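Explain this fold:

***
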Amino acid sequence: MVNSKGWNWGIIKDDKDSVWKNPSEWSYYLLNRWKLQEKESFLDLGCGLGRHSILFGKNGFRVYCFDISKNAIKRTREWAEKENLSFEYRVGDMLELPYLDDSIDAILCLHVISHTDTIGIKKAISEIKRILKKDGECYLTLGSKETYGFKETNWPLIDVNTKLRMEEGPEYKIPHFYADYDLIQELFNEFKIESIQHIGTFREVKGKIFSSYHYHLLIKKL
């Protein structure tokens, strides 16, 4: 199993218009869903700069902020304090989550759980299952084997599902696990899979189109 490594948040600016300072479109659906389900505790697993922690904190959730990056936790705390919000903060590895069994109602894990290899992702999934309450839900993303990073790059192969990202930027030399539908069914066979979406995004660099596909999963602990 590879060693866990977090994003280099130090090169990301605190720009209020940055995607990393604004909640994702999926988070608003989850906010309403989990409020209707009367969920109370929310874990922002891989909180980054805190965009989802702030959203859920402002809407009455008891928020737990977790990231492997000390810089990310520091900046999330600073933002929350400016908003007069009180959260619990932990720096650590997603393969050993510092929370009690059956203690969390809802988990959001966007573009985080894929940052390991096949052995590591199985461990991370078991940790999510351990800390979720019965009927607790988790929304997470996994890199798809249809994305250019898996299909078209010569990045080093760690195992049959994992490559080491060699593109300059905050994810440089971070492992990326990629899945397909059958592998997802295998990995999450102890959960109820509420939904699976296969979503593509596209960007143009110097006239060349790059595609990036992710699986978006909503799972429930049985």
Observations:
- The beta strands are 41-45, 62-67, 88-91, 104-109, 132-144, 157-159, 162-164, 175-179, 191-205, 208-221.
- The domain at 24-143+177-198+217-221 is CATH 3.40.50.150 (Rossmann fold).
- The chain has a mean pLDDT of 94.
